[in-house]
Amino acid sequence: QVQLVESGGGLVQAGGSLRLSCAASGRAFSSYTMAWFRQAPGKEREFVSAISWSGGRTYYSDSVKGRFTISRDNAKNTVFLQMNSLKPEDTAVYYCAAAKYGSVRVTTTGPSDFGTWGQGTQVTVSS
Hints:
- By secondary structure, this protein is an all-beta fold.
- The protein has strands at about 5, 10-15, 20-25, 35-40, 45-50, 60, 70-75, 80-85, 90-100, 115, 120-125.
- Strands 2, 4, 5, 6, 9, 10 and 11 form a 7-stranded mixed β-sheet that branches. Strands 1-3-8-7 form a 4-stranded antiparallel β-sheet, with no helix packed on it.
């Protein structure tokens, strides 16, 4: 079983950058596909990015492609989301998630396919 804790959120001006971290506990971390989702007020939770267990494959939503970069350090049980060129529409609570069945395709984007979630970290981008 994996447990997740996100950090790194905050308030930033449009065009700025933030780096989110997701620290995982549990010996099986390196076998899980990991993902970031986000949820803005009044909206459904949406997929942002995913990374394979090895880090060799990544996938992004069209809304963040070219601006965000997902990475992981299995030795430190941590997943990162580097967010550059932030826009006001990126404002949301960002959640880290582990795939329900371990290693799945990085194109798996449905929240129901992820069984373990962190508590979320708020990202606010001012215009």
